[in-house]
Specification:
Distance between the termini: 25 Å
Bound molecules: S-adenosylmethionine
Structural class: alpha/beta
Order of helices and strands: HHHHEHEHEEHEHHHEE
Number of domains: 1
CATH architecture: 3-Layer(aba) Sandwich
CATH class: Alpha Beta
Shape: globular
Strand order of the largest sheet: 3-2-1-4-5-7-6
Radius of gyration: 17 Å
CATH superfamily: Vaccinia Virus protein VP39
Oligomer: single chain
């Protein structure tokens, strides 16, 4: 399995982690009111299909405790909610969680992925969509998710990944020409969407992410590409005791 140097991947030398953390917080507090609209505009609505697939694979069941980490405005948590189960949205951005509260009444917990405010072995499932890329210490956040999951519990992580080669010209054109313009017109935050593109480009590809999850201790680590690898759903299990 190909290993990846996370410090290099996330450019530890380029941006101080505490500065990066502040930048990420600012980005999400600014984009929160227009976040959902911008997602539809950028992805032509396709993010909804990816999220539905993630929620379906999570296979929520009665009596389960499910955490949607980096849950933001609640798209995934809403899809997983239902009677007789506990679904929590966990996110450090109050603004993002507030923006979603017009659409749901699910419990929201202000917490970072790197220091989760949940007890050991307390969750059956943790989902995280387009969130792990924003964590300044991704390995620590994955270790925290591992800690919080019950033995046999699963993490399902939807994240941008490396698309198939034939798609690259269109993908690059969309990333460098369309998204920054949409960021300016729709979200009114062009810098926020420049950050988005940079963070996607730096993120580990499918196989690298699989190795990182295995290194954390997860077993049966698999992935499923969506939209030809533009995004990918990574799944891992905390070993049963
Ligand atoms: C791109 S949004 C994704 C929101 C939602 N999961 C979705 O797919 O629509 C990223 C989210 O990650 C959150 N976030 C940023 N840094 C984080 C951290 N260190 N730990 C947990 N969440 C974080 C942001 O506040 C934001 O809500």
């Amino acid at each position: 399995m190909k290993k990846v140097d996370l410090d290099q991947t996330f450019g530890k030398q380029e941006v101080d982690p505490s500065e990066r953390k502040k930048l990420i917080r600012r980005v999400f507090s600014k984009v929160a009111p227009r976040y959902d609209l911008m997602n539809d505009a950028m992805s032509f609505g396709i993010h909804r299909l990816w999220k539905s697939k993630l929620a379906k694979l999570a296979n929520p069941q009665a009596k389960q405790v499910i955490i949607d980490l980096a849950g933001g405005t609640g798209d995934i948590a809403i899809k997983m909610s239902g009677e007789n189960r506990s679904v929590f949205i966990a996110d450090p951005s109050i603004e993002m969680m507030q923006a979603g509260q017009q659409r749901h009444a699910l419990p929201c917990i202000a917490t970072t992925g790197e220091q989760l405010s949940f007890a050991d072995n307390s969750a059956d499932t943790i989902t995280i969509a387009f969130g792990v890329r924003n964590m300044t210490q991704m390995t620590q956040a994955l270790a925290e998710m591992y800690r919080v999951l019950k033995p046999g519990g699963r993490i399902l992580c939807l994240e941008f990944s490396k698309p198939q080669k034939w798609l690259k010209p269109f993908y690059d054109w969309h990333s460098y020409h369309i998204i920054p313009r949409l960021g300016a017109w729709v979200a009114r935050q062009p810098e926020a969407y420049t950050y988005l593109i940079e963070s996607i480009r730096r993120f580990p590809d499918q196989k690298e992410m699989q190795g990182i999850m295995q290194d954390t201790g997860f077993v049966d680590v698999t992935y499923q590409n969506v939209s030809f690898g533009i995004a990918c759903i990574h799944i891992g299990t905390k070993p049963a005791e």
